[in-house]
Amino acid sequence: xxxxxxxxxxxxxxxxxxxxxxxAIAYQAAAWAAVDAGLHGxxxxxxxxxxxxxxxxxGVVLSDDDVRILRTDGERxxxxxxxxxxxxxxxxxxxxxTEVTFDSIIPYLIDLSRRARVLVVGSRGLGAFxxxxxxxxxxxxxxxxxxxxxxxxNTAATDVLTAEKPVLVGVDGSDNxxxxxxxxxxxxxxxxxxxxxxxxWSDVSALDTPLPGWGMIxxxxxxxxxxxxxxxxxxxxxxxxxxxxxxDRPVRALLDESEHAQLLVVGSHGRGGFTGMLxxxxxxxxxxxxxxxxxxxxxx
Length: 300
What we know:
Blueprint: E1 16-19, H1 24-40, E2 44-49, H2 64-88, E3 96-101, H3 105-112, E4 118-122, H4 136-144, E5 149-152, E6 167-170, H5 178-191, E7 195-200, H6 214-230, E8 241-246, H7 250-258, E9 263-267, H8 281-289, E10 294-297
């Protein structure tokens, strides 16, 4: 394992990038990222920003002492994150790079995402004064990153018992959900676990009274789900697949099933039951509530 401060601009093997800020959730994110980097055989880049946020006030002029103090604190943060990463993935030849930047964290991460395998952030906002759930940083990178974004919540889900749980993926039957399905199969294969493919076909609760013709609709939706996952059997013969079809709201269905999963994978947008997923109120409801780590996969 090595630690240095070289940016991965020209790496053939893209790194997994994790942003940390000294919070407990950020260190959970570093732990999850380390495990995922080990599964991918990818380097891990741990970054933090020490940019001073001034809002609309005039720019702050920092003295040399101010700069030194900020950099020292930034180095402490990435060093502690590296320790968390080593503890989560012991015994492996994991290449860890650390970097402290004065750049604003959101554009910095979006730029890094152009050459990253996965961008990992904590679900709460980054920065010493932004601890709100699903903060501005995680929201921005989820919307604008050029690679998949992993959001880690209250736990890194790296313990032995959780590691045996399946990967959960939301399938809406459209082409937009295919990148998420591909990534979910890849993650399940690397983790040597099964995959739960969940498809919802109604925007109303399963407790609502069925309407005439719903039985036929359910049969049609079951065929859609079967067709979507069938093509992956030959490519991932090691991944047992559990198909779940629910007449329910997608957020509630995914949220309920995520309690039995180690990882949730969803597309950045879709059609039908997943319309607007991760871009509007649906996304806010899901990512505010889910406990397990979640990966958002951009479409195209």
